[in-house]
User: Fold this.
Amino acid sequence: MYGVIIHFLREYVIERHGGEATWQALIEAQGYKYKLYFPVQDYPDEEIVGLVETASKALKTPIPDVLEDFGSYAGPKLLSFYHMYVKNKDMKTFDVIETAGANIHDVIHKHNPNRKPPRLSSQRESENVIVVHYQSHRKLCPVVRGIIRGLGEKFNERFDINETQCMHDGAEKCIMRVTRSAS
Ligand code: HEM
Assistant:
């Protein structure tokens, strides 16, 4: 996984869960005295898994809930970190979801074929409903839900997210029906 995601995880822990000391404790639990994560460097997925597992134990919160909350933090951050990909300044959540698949994650893969970013596609069913398809060997559907919620907070939109099938139940991909409920 690109270091940018771990970099956001660090900021998330510092901002929402007790500052530098908590992050330092997480790092030490992974066997490091000191560790820097560089945004465009590639790190083994086990690094982020270990950090999230330790955070989940420390917070006494299930891993999917930690991942979803982290996703809600990371969504708007991804948007501003990669602002060059976001040409249309009037975008809202559904537009970001639509552009993230073909124009962002696939571009990452094209420029660096060793990367395995998630496969994300979507179809709008109506003005307020979009169906999101997510596939990744990392099976991070709670992060998808969190990113959607986090973008919603940024754009003042609220969503009901109904996951109709999930890789954690053996499906080949996760499918989520996202309904915008209020602006
Ligand atoms: C401006 C918008 C976005 C940008 C710039 C962006 C960029 C990225 C980058 C750089 C990664 C790391 C990929 C890697 O290490 O190979 C990533 C991972 C991820 N992104 Fe996005 N993303 C965006 C929007 C979204 C949206 C809207 C969703 C879902 C609704 C999403 C879901 C994910 C997930 C779940 C991962 C974790 C990796 C995995 O599941 O395999 N992203 N994204």
Remarks:
- The longest helix spans residues 63-81.
